[in-house]
Each structure stands twice: as structure tokens, then as C-alpha cells.
């Protein structure tokens, strides 16, 4: 009699665990690729934009890379070179390769960009953003 009770208990636990695994797998494939960056900013992997939920400000499309710390988000964006295309009413400076950068100060929601590589390097050196972003600068 005790073995039947123990087997039922084990059976219920296995079913519960299997159900929990199935729910986890389902949610993994359904929930979009979202990375929290702090200060209300998120990276939306499917659309490759950085979005601020509080201010509805967005950097994108075509975010190639980003780095962040407690105070700043640094964004590298490669915009396709199409004639007569407006991306979110943002005027991009002339660029030979279509690579632009943004510096976002999270606490005051100040967004500097789009910047070319020269303006970007000047900006992060003046703001003393930090060495965490050195790889992003050298990739350009």
C-alpha cells in the first residue's frame, strides 16, 4: 500500500516537472529577445532598436552593437545607404560607410547622436565614459 502512494507521488512530481519544463520552453520561444539596459532603456533584438519605455525615444533601426554601464549606453549603428530614405526623421551626417554612434546618458535621458566616428571619439573622451567601451571604438 505504501509503495502505491509513493509511486503516485513520484508520478505527480514527474508530471509537474515535465509541465514546468514545457511551459519554460514555450515562453522561451514566444517572449521576444529583450535586454534591460537600465534607466528605462531596453534593446529589442528582433527589431535591433534601443528603446526607452519612459520617453518613447528609440535609437534604430540597425543597431549593430551596444555597451552599457550604470551611467551610459554607447550604441553602434550601421544604416543602409539608400537614397531618399528617412529613418524616424533623423538626419544622419555624411558617412562613407553608414556607421554612426550614439551616447546616451541614462539618468538625464540626454541622447547625443547620430555621431560619426570622429565626433564619437571626441564625445566619449570628454565625458570620460570609460574603458569598457574601448572595443566598440576600435571596431569602427
Key phrases:
disordered C terminus; single chain; four-stranded antiparallel β-sheet; 2 domains; elongated; 140 residues; 29% strand; 33% helix
List the helices and strands and how they pair.
Blueprint: H1 2-30, E1 34-38, E2 41-44, E3 49-52, E4 58-59, E5 63-68, E6 72-78, E7 99-105, E8 110-115, H2 117-127, H3 134-139
Antiparallel strand pairs: 1-2, 2-3, 3-4, 5-6, 6-7, 7-8
Explain what the structure shows.
- The chain has 140 residues and is α+β, with helices and mostly antiparallel strands.
- The chain folds into two domains: 1-31; 34-139, no CATH class.
- It is built from three helices and eight strands; from the N terminus they run αββββββββαα.
- Helices cover 33% and strands 29% of the residues.
- The protein has helices at residues 2-30, 117-127, 134-139; strands at residues 34-38, 41-44, 49-52, 58-59, 63-68, 72-78, 99-105, 110-115.
- The chain is elongated, with a radius of gyration of 23 Å.
- Strand 5 (63-68) and strand 6 form a beta hairpin.
- The strands form two sheets. The protein has a four-stranded antiparallel β-sheet with strand order 1-2-3-4, with no helix packed on it.
Amino acid at each position: 500500500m505504501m509503495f502505491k502512494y509513493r509511486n503516485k507521488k513520484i508520478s505527480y512530481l514527474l508530471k509537474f516537472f515535465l509541465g514546468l519544463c514545457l511551459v519554460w520552453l514555450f515562453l522561451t520561444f514566444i517572449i521576444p529577445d529583450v535586454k534591460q539596459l537600465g534607466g528605462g532603456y531596453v534593446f529589442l533584438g528582433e527589431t535591433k532598436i534601443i528603446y526607452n519605455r519612459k520617453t518613447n525615444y528609440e535609437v534604430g533601426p540597425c543597431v549593430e552593437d551596444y555597451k552599457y554601464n550604470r551611467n551610459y549606453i554607447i550604441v553602434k549603428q550601421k544604416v543602409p545607404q539608400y537614397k531618399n530614405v528617412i529613418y524616424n526623421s533623423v538626419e544622419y551626417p555624411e558617412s562613407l560607410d553608414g556607421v554612426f554612434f550614439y551616447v546616451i546618458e541614462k539618468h538625464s535621458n540626454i541622447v547625443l547622436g547620430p555621431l560619426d566616428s570622429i565626433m564619437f571619439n571626441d564625445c566619449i573622451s570628454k565625458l570620460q565614459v570609460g574603458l569598457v567601451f574601448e572595443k566598440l571604438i576600435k571596431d569602427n
